[in-house]
Each structure stands twice: as structure tokens, then as C-alpha cells.
Fold each of these.
Amino acid sequence: MSDPSSLKTTPLTAWHSAHGAKMVPYAGFEMPVQYEGTLAEHACVREKVGLFDITHMGEIFVGGPGAEAWIDSLVTNRVSGAAIGKITYTAMCRQDGGVLDDMLVYRLDETEWMIVCNAANHEKISSWLQQHLPNGDVDLEDRSDQVALIAVQGPDSRDLLCRLEALAGRTAAVEALNFYTSFTHAGPHGQWIVSRTGYTGEHGYELYLPNADAVAVWEELLARGEDLGAAPIGLAARDTLRFEVCYCLYGHELEEDITPLEAGIGWAVKLKKNEFTGRDALVAQKSEGVPRRIICLEITGRGIARQGGRVLCDGRDVGVVTSGTFSPTLKKPLAMALVDASVSDGEMAVDVRGKPLECRIVSFPFLSARTKGDPRAERTLS
Amino acid sequence: MVPDDRKYTQEHEWVLIEDGVATIGVTDFAAGELGDVVFVELPEVGSEFSQGDTVGTIESVKAVADLYLPVSGEIAAINEAVVDSPELVNSDPLEDGWLLKVKMNDVTEADQLMDAAAYGQLLEG
């Protein structure tokens, strides 16, 4: 994996390298982890607008008359009955309720759907879908290698997106786009999907483009966004941005041995819908009581808790830190942790290299998202 | 930037020795590799350490680096400004971003450190 020649690239990889990005291997891709600095990039997205190359995500297209019912049988949320353009956040689980991946499911048309999965789980989800493919009325096509994905995120993202030449004439559609909805558009080199989604907690969009459109759109957004302070943002800031608003990240809050109920995304689990993989296990877990839950911690001692740190309550090991870093917006170390559901009070600490680091439980999330409504609304801090 | 008024270590720290007191910080290269430094933990003034001991940590948003003591001795001072404003490690690693001062037990330990030319070669790999 450390051999750069074995890593996959995106249409923007050369651009990132040429513009001073620090490149790292990530889920089999060579990706930009930062440009001018994580703190500055983080602030740019919170206050202005930033661009992310997230082409590493997997895009799997599902079509045919059986697609709707079939997808519904594999995911925890309900996708059937979705309006065209609607996007559904969901988990896909194993029989025992463990999360294989979290993903977005787009209804592009009556019988055309797109599943967007994490790069790190792409192969696993591809083969899971293949294994569960019914005979006949469902077609599966993985177009990840043909689709580039650019996220435009921040309070000025709508303003910036409306300046794109290719979307001239569609600005009313962009302005009308509600959170978790999308529209398709005929771009210069093929179909675009313009999506009001993101992973930052800010007002934002994600543009699914043919590879051939990626560099031109990226450069046009930067050029037309110069007065707004638009800048490219690396994966390190993508992580701190999602962390502050407590969005789950696979490999952290989500794993095959964690259920969506434990991870706090029970709102994306519809136990009352028809049979889906993992339903029985999740019904049982819900009736017996969820054994573990995600909590938010503010570190009050001196230091930073990181993923893997054991969480102590009155000296007793009660769980593990799933994500932890210094919050650029709140300017203090914070952590999310998966702990015994019984933990609610007591002297909390995280073991950091053998030393207990004091912390306290705070409310969820650390920072309120501004994905809906006024992009510059006053924030609530935990 | 590798000034030749000081010595360097394999761990990308610099050591400026004056009258038996070594001032220690991290190099430009180390600061750049770490990224935005957000937390610095330094030892207590007056404590004694041997060469190579871990005496503190420097943390950025993404990474944690141990701070190794390049020379033996007693901690004579720590830079409180860096504790309060860890970003000094990035903005001025070689001057205002110094980390600690050590009263050296054995000034000949300095001979084991790299000079600017050798450190420059290390950076060029």
C-alpha cells in the first residue's frame, strides 16, 4: 500500500500535487490530506466555502423494475416510495446487525438508483451486492471509475455553485434544492448529479461528474470563488469538520461489530418495514436494550484523547474512544466514545499512554449542523 | 531553513548551546510534518533526565510526536508561551517556538549531535 504506484488516482490527483497538497494513501487512493493547513482549511469551510475531491467514494448504479424492493431488503432505512431526486442515508448490515457500511441511496428515476459507499468498504459492498443479486429484474453497474465527486461545502456554497457556467439556467433548481435531494443535469461530458448533501455540517453540495469534467469544474469553482475565499480542503479537515457535528465515520463509530442502534443512527433504522438483512438482530437488540452507546466527551485535563484510548468511569474500563482530536471551532480537545449503555455519570477519564486524562460527558453534538435553513445561523455548542 | 548556530538530532530537534545550557526546539521540517500544533506538554522545571528520555509530547490535529531530550541534565526552563499558544511551534519553530532549556550534565554530549551541514544532508535524504 505504501508503494505510490499501486495507488489509484482521481482526475484531480495531479492538480493536488501541483498545488502543494500533502498527499497520503487513503483507502487505496492517493489523496490530499491537507493544503495550507488543517486549521485554516477547517475555518474556511465553517466560515466561507471549500472544495473537496472525494472521488474515492464508490458509486454503484442499480436499475430495473426490481431495484426498489431489492435495495430496501438490504438496507436499514426505507428507500421504497422515495420521490425522484430523494436521497436516503442508511446503514447496510450483516445478518447479526453489524454495520457493513453506511451509505447514501439516491433515487435518480422511477427504476434507477445510485448507492454511494465508503472507499474503504467499496469492494466489500460490491461483492455483498453481487452475492445478494436476484435473478432477473435488477441490474448492477459499478461506475466508480467513471464518476468524479467534488464536494462544495460552506455557508457560501450555494452562491458559488450558482456561478458555474455549466449550471447557468439551472440556478433556480440549485436554489430550490432541499437538504438530501438532488437533480440530474446534462453536463459538457455527460450526466451530472447535483446533490444537496455533505459531510461537514455546513450548507453544501456534492457534484457527481464524468471524470472528463472534473478538472475544469474544480478550477472554475476556485476561480469564480476567489472573492468568496474558496479554497481546496484536504481529508484531515474533512475529518475534523464531520467530527465536530458528530457524524459517524466508518472505522471509527461504525464497524462490523457495532450495530446502527449502538452507533446512534437508529433514526436510519426502520424496524417496521418489511424484512431486511439484520432486522431480526436489531429488533432483538432494541427490545433487550442496546448494550453500548456513543457518548460525547470534553477533555478537561491537559492532553488529547485519540481513537483506541480506553474510557474509564470511576476507574472502571467502560469502553473506547472512537474519534478524538482538538476541535478547531470549539478550540478544545473533544472525543466520541463507544461505552457501556449504563454509563451516565461518574468520574470520567480516558487512558492516554498510561495516564488518566480527565473528561466529562457533554451533550450531542459538539456543534449544531447548519445543513438546513440559514447557512449562517447562530450555532449551538455543546 | 537550517541555521548553523546550532546542532540537530535524527528526531528533527534543534539544540542551541550557550554556557552549558541547551535550548531545545523542533526544526522547520518537523513543524511542517506535524501540521498545525494544538497541544504541547513539557516537563517540570527542576526535573532531571538522561539523554534520549521522553520528556514531553507535541500534538497536532492528526498526529502525536514524542519530545526526546537530546542531552542529559536538569530542566532549567520551559517555554510557557508555547504551552499557551502551541501555534508558535509552526509560526516560529526556531526562535519564539523554542520548547525547553536544559542545564547540561556533560557538555561533550553535544559532540554526538549533527551540525547544520549533516542535518541538511539528512533532510535531502
Amino acid sequence: MMHRVDGLFNSTDNSRELTCAHGANHRERKMIETLKLIFIIAVLILAALATLRARSLLLSALWLAGVSAMISTLLYTLSAHQVAVIELSVGAGLVTIFFIFVISAAGDEQVERSSVIPRTIAAVLVIVAVTLLIVLGRSSNWVNALPTTQNQANRFTQIRGLDLLVQVVLIFAGVLGLVEILAEAKAPLDHPMADEIAVKREHDLQSLEQESRRPVEDARRLEHGLITPTDATPEAPQLR
Amino acid sequence: MEISPLVICLVTVCCLFAVGFYGLLIARNLIKIVIMLQILVKAAVLGLVLAGQMSGQLNLGQNIAITVIVVDTIVAVVALAFAVQIRRQVGTLDVRDLSSLRG
């Protein structure tokens, strides 16, 4: 199966056709490529661990961008150029901007060290999950589960109309989510909008009536001697 | 002993999966949970491309990986929107405090 793979993996079969002199050179080149791969992967895993360990959310988001950048480098090394470009632009660019925007909107809370699930149980669960992944990956021959003929692959790409439609709907949902992020917080209304307006108008009308009635009442009080002329409003009419 | 690049990449997928899953289990902050989910999905994307490489159908693997990236981005945006709204309404992003709320 390996002979069908291009990029990094086809070097194994090519080495058989080389002469001894070229063979040594080829082995050296292969070792350098392997070392390069190991270096990329080491940085990738270190960045992932730093994302997990970072106490500040902002630092965590920035380390995640580093993980995306290293994954796109790895994908490029594996000859998956299209995914590498999309991962770099979307994963390391767009999503990081979203994260930074949301952290600035929601506040950079310090992440608590204690967890909901005890760490020992979490570690055991992770070991079980990874073991299952390895065992199922080795036993079920999952590579052969993929369509092997080009025809099936073409068929899959041709019926991507539905797939694209779903993606459009998802992008629409994403835009709505973004609007939700940008929306200002507003206190919920106690009544329907029409009732709120009617109550506000009634309140304004009452205060207007009180204002217009105040000079007449002051004049009455002045006549009965309840208030002094200095306390009365200047507009108070003289009653007879 | 010579290690094949394929084995190295599969070990990377397992490591990334482990880090993402562990973070998802122990994280208490909603934004941190979304970040860990991103790492988990990146492991899946790498696995899909590797599967495409191994079966000789790299284009198919890339197609599915791109779809997964788009869906993952949308999931992240919607989840972050929820997180912001929860922060505004409740005042915290801690899942322990949120789980004690009663409707």
C-alpha cells in the first residue's frame, strides 16, 4: 500500500533502486527528513501542553494559534497543501482573532487549578480512550474502510452539493453567533413593547398635569396662609 | 531501529488526542473548554489526512478534513457566543458555578 503514497512516504521504495553510493546519501537525506518531522512534532506537542497548562486564557489562545501553525506545517510536509493553507488561515488566523475578541469581551479570568473531575480519574479515562483508539485502529483495518477506487472518491466529491448546502447553513449559524457576541446586553422588558410605551406616555401625561396644576394649588395655599409668598411659584395666580 | 514517518505521525495524533481529551475533562472555564475542543478536532483533522495518505486517496482525505475544519470553526464561534452571553447574564464562566444554577 505504501507504494501508492506520494510525498514523504514514497522514499522507502525508491531507495531499493539506488546504488550503494547513492544509497548512503539517500539514507542521510531520509534521516534529516525524519529529524525535521520529529522537530515539528515536538514543537507541536509542547505547544499543545502549553495550551493546557497556561493559566491565562489569552496565553492559552495564543498557544493554540501556535498549535495550528505547527499542524499546518506538518500537513504541508505530508503533501496535504490545501488543508495546510486552510488550517493556517482559519485555525491560526480567524479562530485566534475570535478567541482574543471574546476574551476581551468576557474578561480574562484566571483559570482555576482544581477541576470538576479528579485528575486521576481524568488521566485513567484518557489512557483508556487512547488505548481504545490504538486497538481499534490496528484491529479494524480502518484504512480499507475508505473508498479505494477513484470512482467512489469522484462520486463523493460530485455529491458534495448537499455537503456545501450544510456548510452554508452552518456559516449562517456562525454569523448569527457572531452577531450574538457583538450584541449589547439589555435588561429584559417587564411587559410587551406596546404596553411599555403606553405606561411611559401615561407617566409623562401625569407629570405634565401635576406641573400645570401646581401654580393654582400654590395660590390656594397662599390665600389660606399655608405658605409664604416666597415659597409659592412665581406663576401662581391671585385668587379672589 | 528505523522509525517510519507514518508511525511518528500516528503517535502525534494519539498525543494530541490525549492532550485535548484530558483538557476537556479537567477544564472548568467555558472558553478553555472550547480551546481544548479545538485541539481534539485538530487531532481528528490530522488523522483524516493520514488516513487519506495511507489509502492513496489524499484528495478524499483533504475534502473531509476541510469540511471538518469549517464545521469546527462554526462550532467554536457559536460556543464562544454562548460563553459571552452566559458571562453577561450570570457573571461567571466557571462550569461548577453554572451547574449549581436551578431553572
